[in-house]
Specification:
The modification N6-(pyridoxal phosphate)lysine is found at residue 252. It is found in: Cytoplasm. GO terms for molecular function: identical protein binding; N2-acetyl-L-ornithine:2-oxoglutarate 5-aminotransferase activity; pyridoxal phosphate binding. Pyridoxal 5'-phosphate binds at residues 138, 223-226, 281. The protein has helices at residues 7-13, 46-49, 58-68, 81-93, 105-124, 143-148, 173-179, 203-215, 267-270, 286-299, 302-326, 351-360, 383-401, and strands at residues 25-29, 32-35, 40-43, 98-102, 130-134, 165-168, 184-189, 192-193, 199-200, 219-223, 247-250, 261-265, 329-335, 338-343, 363-364, 366-367, 372-375. With 402 residues, it is α/β, with parallel strands linked by helices. Strand 2 and strand 3 form a beta hairpin. It has two domains: 7-57 and 302-401, Aspartate Aminotransferase, domain 1; 71-299, Type I PLP-dependent aspartate aminotransferase-like (Major domain) (Aspartate Aminotransferase, domain 2), CATH 3.40.640. It is globular. The strands form four sheets. It has a seven-stranded mixed sheet with strand order 4-12-11-10-7-5-6, sandwiched between helices. Strands 1-2-3-15 form a four-stranded mixed sheet. Strands 13-14-17-16 form a four-stranded antiparallel sheet. It starts with 6 loop residues before the first helix and ends with a helix.
């Protein structure tokens, strides 16, 4: 073995399901990251909408170190104080009465979909089992969640697939009306489609979906894995939409970089998950919950939510100016610290090139499909880092179009 690892080492020892950059980040501070060669980057990517408080946040570091000196793991044979405190604060802050902890967004969604079917079975019978989702959606990488997601490229080659899952067009209420029925046990939607291209739900569409769910006794499940924990300028996006789900899933920013996820729901619905029906060995572990508590305390303040909205407006206007200057974007959409720059017709299908140009000029961003460049910076990003990141991105685009 060598003491020096490079991108080539990945090809030697890792399963090839990822295609990572040549960059090997070694440390971070706030919204800046340094790689193995000492190169510095402004982080507009946030670990794919995870690092809501940036890197090396002192509150998170302290919470982890303090808990590490106490107890790390217990399993679900026992409960623990950090888990109870986090669940208590989440239920106090949201519509929910009950919480189930997991390790990721995919696990949280798996729990939500199982609960929806179990609840329908208990209350209406086995024939009420259909799950209705939307094209371009993304809900995880387990076989069940990837099938609920509306992107066939993620299910190819994994057949036979779980059945009883239907898809319709996002933001198209007439198409939705044609599919929902008394056989529908749950409707699953993202308030803003993330992997599908940073596509916000139309408020009137969401309102009518809620009404039709009630009419057909179907549960409304909001996947807030990417939009939750303050990323949109509300603790959860549903709070700014005037619609309340029956089940909500959360992860990513919830741990600020530490793996944790959760499913939130009401007492009535939660009653269907009796002992033995579902579980997670690591879900609700003291380390993860202690870190998430620190994130929640830092993010869930009026001042922080106002800052998210103000900084979002600055980033969005900066991206719009770049798009107009170089003719590369047809628009910028999204909310809070989850924005997507939609490529103009000339540049469609080339989002990866923008990613690579950013890396070469010291700024990290993301893609959301082949036609959208995604930005998911920390809520704590400074004005100086916003300006520097936009300047570096501007330089990257100037080189790309030349």
């Amino acid at each position: 073995m060598s003491d020096s690892y490079t991108r080539a080492t990945f090809d030697e020892v890792m399963v090839p399901n990822y295609n990572p950059s040549e960059i090997l980040p070694e440390r971070g501070e706030g919204s800046r990251v340094w790689d193995q060669n000492g190169n510095e980057y402004v982080d507009f990517a946030g670990g794919i909408a995870v690092s809501i408080l940036g890197h090396n946040h002192p509150g998170m570091v302290k919470a982890l170190k303090d808990q590490a000196d106490k107890i790390w793991h217990l399993s679900n044979v026992f409960t623990n104080k950090p888990a109870l405190e986090l669940a208590d604060k989440l239920t106090e802050a949201t519509f929910a009465d009950k919480v189930f902890f997991a390790n990721s967004g995919g696990e949280a969604n798996e729990a939500a979909f199982k609960l929806a079917r179990r609840y329908a079975h208990d209350n209406f019978g086995p024939e009420k089992s259909e799950i209705l989702s939307f094209s371009k959606s993304f809900h995880g990488r387990t076989l069940f969640t990837v099938c609920v997601g509306g992107q066939p490229k993620y299910t190819e080659g994994f057949e036979p697939l779980p059945g009883g899952i239907l898809h319709t067009e996002y933001n198209n209420i007439e198409a939705f009306k044609e599919l929902i029925s008394d056989k529908t046990c749950a409707v699953v939607m993202e308030p803003i489609q993330g992997e599908g291209g940073i596509i916000p739900a139309d408020p009137e569409f969401v309102k009518q979906v809620r009404e039709l769910c009630d009419k057909h006794n179907a549960l409304l499940v909001f996947d807030e894995v990417q939009t939750g924990f303050g990323r949109t300028g509300d603790l959860y996006a549903y709070m700014g939409m005037g619609v309340t789900p029956d089940i909500l899933t959360t992860a990513k920013s919830m741990g600020g970089g530490f793996p944790i996820g959760a499913m939130l729901t009401t007492t009535k619905i939660a009653a269907s998950l009796v002992p033995g029906t579902h579980g997670s060995t690591y879900g609700g572990n003291p380390l993860g919950c202690a870190v998430s508590l620190a994130v929640l305390d830092a993010i869930n303040t009026p001042e922080m939510m106002t800052a998210v909205k103000e900084k979002s407006a600055k980033i969005q206007s900066g991206l719009e100016a770049i798009g107009e200057k170089y003719g590369v974007f047809s628009g910028v959409r999204g909310k809070g610290m989850l924005l997507g720059a939609v490529l103009s017709d000339e540049w469609k299908g080339k989002a990866r090139k923008f990613l690579e140009a950013g890396w070469a000029n010291g700024v990290m961003c993301l893609v959301a499909g082949a036609d959208v460049v995604r930005f998911a910076p920390a809520a704590t990003i400074t004005e100086a880092d916003i300006e520097e990141g936009l300047a570096r991105f501007d330089k990257a685009i100037s080189e790309l179009v030349s």
